[in-house]
Amino acid sequence: MTTRTTRPRRRDRRYASPGAHAFAILLLLGTLLPFTWMVLSAFKTPMELNGVDKRLLPGGFYLGNFEKIADTNFFTYFLNSVIVAAATTTIALLLAILAGYGFARFTFIGNRGMLLIVVAAQMFPAVMLAIPLFITVKTLGLLDSLTGLILVYISFALPFCIWLMRNYFMAVPVETEEAAFIDGCSRFRALWQVVLPPAMPGVMAAAVFTIIQVWEEFLYANTFIDTDAKRTLSVGLNSLIGEFTTDWGRLLAAGVLVMIPVLAIFGYLQRYVTQIAGGGVKG
């Protein structure tokens, strides 16, 4: 008696149409061209930037624009942005992990209503919340301080982080957590050692979202900070634009330096973020 062996079927590979490829290329070029122009222009001489020496590409790597940054408070702005971004991301992620776990694992009165409020909080534009937040920060005596700005950014980042972490915790099987309870783990220990590791792509995605939002935010930083020594990069770069003249070479060089940390962080965390599209949590 012979047994018939079945060969696994090959999966049909579907390729995108030429039109989709062309659209993707145009979208990529539209995204990269401004950054490419900024990087190239940062190495141009003042004559090349002012159009006296009409060249599309810089004649050489002119570093004078980067040297002129030392004459400003750029590095103070940079340090302030690092402090604000690190503190906001750390606190927002800790609160989002705890709140997301609570929404995912516990059923209590007002659960769905509170979750809807969290989701609806993302619908309000930032300019609408500027005045209420200004009054709150002023009442707390935290105007013109990095602490007040950090609290504002935490309130801005928390809704998305909570919603994201809640969905990731919902995808983690409850059986793995119950097995940890049987082995003697407390709920808090089970959260950090059993539930959280499979949800790390969500944590990293929330971290990337928070860092980018804080790093480039301008409205709140300009509203709540008056002292030049406490400004962040977004407001600090705006101060490099003069009333009558602007040193565009220095401004473009500063823009290149501002872009480097974000690209480095996103490049390092990209492998976690891309798992969201492919399903990062496995049962």
UniProtKB/TrEMBL annotation:
Gene3D superfamilies: MetI-like. It is found in: Cell membrane. Residues 78-269 form the ABC transmembrane type-1 domain. The keyword Iron-sulfur does not apply. The chain crosses the membrane at residues 20-40, 77-103, 115-135, 147-169, 190-215, 248-269. Signal peptide: none annotated. InterPro entries: BP-dep_ABC_trans_perm, MetI-like, MetI-like_sf. The keyword rRNA processing does not apply. It is a multi-pass membrane protein. Keywords: Cell membrane, Membrane, Transmembrane, Transmembrane helix, Transport. CDD domains: TM_PBP2. Belongs to the binding-protein-dependent transport system permease family. This is Carbohydrate ABC transporter permease. It comes from Occultella gossypii. The lineage of its organism: Bacteria, Bacillati, Actinomycetota, Actinomycetes, Micrococcales.
